[in-house]
Write a structure and sequence with these properties.
By secondary structure, this protein is α+β, with helices and mostly antiparallel strands. It is 49% helix and 12% strand. This is HTH luxR-type domain-containing protein.
Amino acid sequence: MKNLILSGSSIVNTLKKELMTYGFNGFCYHLPLENNYISDVDLPKLKDFRPELIKREKFVVASDKRAINVREYYFRLFADKMDSGLAKKKKLGPNLWDGPNLATSSGVQLQRFLHLNDVHTVINWLVPLHCPWSGMFTLFTSENKDDILNTANDNHDAIDALLCLYAGHFTSKFIVELNPIANHGLLSKKSLKILAFISQGDSIETISENENLSIRGVCYHVDRIKNILKCSNRSQMVYKATKLGLIR
């Protein structure tokens, strides 16, 4: 992850404080690949989840730098090894991560790192959104599994309502950065840039001149986007791209 939406804003800090009342000491928020395959988008990589795609993720909303460090360390150790909890499709609500496999050296290494960062249990909390995607909070805590699960179950509705509220805000504000297609590099930067120009009403000829591309090259990107989004014309393409958060 190269570009990170970090803590510092009042709304992120407010959520962090509210989650602390339930025993959580940090969080990351993103739109997960494993739960976000959309049938009317012709992008096989969204369906056939591959762990190396995780390493391409550029943006997350995070409570603090420690949460980012834990997330990056986990992916560095497990993204190529397909941890069983990584690609497993999550249900709405809390999903307990089983933890590292202590039969492996990388598992022991990860557990040591987690404990040094005051993380003993991780819960992935999936929430619905008012858009085609679903959102997920990765919640960190220093409490043991039994205690935090009891807290999560006893306060399920309150925590879920809280996370749904903030997920809606984060997704609305950062949808262009967080949507899985752009965030994991499933469309090239050039294609996304041309899509933005098209949405502004620029002609193929204008885009060709401004981007120093041949008209044929611009048309290639436009046709590819239309095929991926299953659209027959540019108006449909812009509409669906806006709905998916590829453009505002």
